[in-house]
Fold this sequence. Notes:
This protein is α/β, with parallel strands linked by helices. Helix content is about 45%, strand content about 15%.
Amino acid sequence: MNGFFFAIIMKKVIIALDGNSACGKSTLAKEIAKELNYTYIDSGAMYRAVTYYFIKENIIDKNNIIKDNWLDYINNINITFKKNKGQQLIYLNNEIVEDKIRSIEISKRVSYVSKLKLVREKLVSIQQDIGKSKAIVMDGRDIGTVVFPNAEIKLWLTANVNERAERRYSEFVENDSKITYQEVLNNLKTRDFEDENRKESPSKKAIDAIIIDNSYLSKNGTLIEAMKIINKELSNI
């Protein structure tokens, strides 16, 4: 553990980390889990994995139209998290898909897949089962409101959309030199609208969630701010 956080009281709780796309939720959640020796669960990656499966099996087309028989496939999906060479990775039907689910293609289609009621119910059930042992950090968009409404600590991470687009563009451009900043920005605006307005489990800040705006914070600065909050909350439990 980082010596900066030596005062943390080690207790087993659930930390729900929600917020907008490209705020660095996954990065922050991983670092928090590392500091507390907790298990990190990337709920967004789970929806991306299902989207990857839908594309692979031709269940969703290029126009984001989902085939009527998609229910025939839902029970064939098995998602787990395992450590591989010291790194926690997501597996889809025993295949490592960590890198395959981070493309712009997945980003453009994940909102259409994640709004399906039975997809959400299946993944929420998996997430809640994982959370029974506590000592986890889970990030997403409805963790503090739907998956773990009774989580002991809830954080909401946000940043202005232009800053988020810059961050996401930097990630994508390494693997896709043809992608433009405007395309990434438009995708984020679309994702925000769809996440906030979907019928099933819309993205919404829990009333008791503590806001962290990291528009102008570095990754380490965001971690320090989050750990200060967590340390304070843990001391009151």
